[in-house]
Amino acid sequence: MSGEPAAVEARDLSRRYGAVWALRECSFALPANRVVALVGANGAGKSTLLSIIAGTLAATSGTVLVHGRPMVRGGSVDGGSRVAILAQDKPLYRDFTVSDMLRFGRSTNRVWDQRRALSWLDRFAVPLDRRCGKLSGGQRAQVALAVALGSRPAVLLLDEPLANLDPLARVEVTGELLAEVADDDMTVVLSTHIVAELSGVGDHLLLLDAGRPVLTGDVEELLDSHVRLTGPRADQPPGPGVVVQAQHTGRQSTFVLRRPAAPAAHAVVAPGWTARPITLDELILTHLRASAAAPHERKAVA
Ligand SMILES: Nc1ncnc2c1ncn2[C@@H]1O[C@H](COP(=O)(O)OP(=O)(O)OP(=O)(O)O)[C@@H](O)[C@H]1O
Description:
By secondary structure, the protein is α+β, with helices and mostly antiparallel strands. The protein has two domains: about 200 residues, Rossmann fold; about 80 residues, no CATH class. The protein has seven helices and 16 strands.
């Protein structure tokens, strides 16, 4: 991360609701000016994590830093970088028109960029004079996104923003968000559990399982470092790396390996074995299965 403070850094972050630990000892750093996909099953702790980063929920223990400054409930201790959160229920006033919502955004935010909010609505053809209660679920999501973008946050947290969007709009919205990030000093963290439709959603990944981060990193690097090897039945893979998954049938074995150095797909494969890269869906599902099967054990092969 080249000496720059991370956009968001968590240190030993935990949150308990009564007897339920929603987050357990989470430590990670998210780079600035990226779209980060926060992925996890229902109940993995995504909303809890986003609310703590936004300062709307207190952690039970641990620290969150936003651009190097501690974030506490209610906001940064010294009025640091702006963080905006778009919660799952996307609060809009049903009787307000879309234009009214923008006026509301202007009056409730210290910084307001009307041009940016309008241009987002224009891109998705959302009518400005329609009452929010008469918009479709997808259009309401676009209005909430426009208001969030208008507040020019340094970190924009989006809790399941794609849930109400059709597949085409989902691709368009994520594409436009990537463009906003490229044009501006902004980091987007976007939560989703739609693993099957993740491709292109983010360029950095934070995968949560049962309140713990199980995989984090640049998506391209993660894909490059994983390989699926298939060959004759064997207890160990034919090369070095961490075994993320091993599957055996009577005569055949398949290993998903994580290799530290060169792109795994270009690795020399032992005779009788074939290597193929894995897809993003496979990467996520493999790590989630491994975490569920043996939460803190990963076998390293020298
Ligand atoms: N207010 C609350 N009181 C008690 N338990 C809660 C509360 N909020 C969340 N939890 C529990 O904490 C855990 C994490 O919940 P959270 O909503 O953060 O997960 P999530 O990954 O956002 O889930 P989803 O994808 O379903 O929105 C779950 O077990 C949930 O039941």
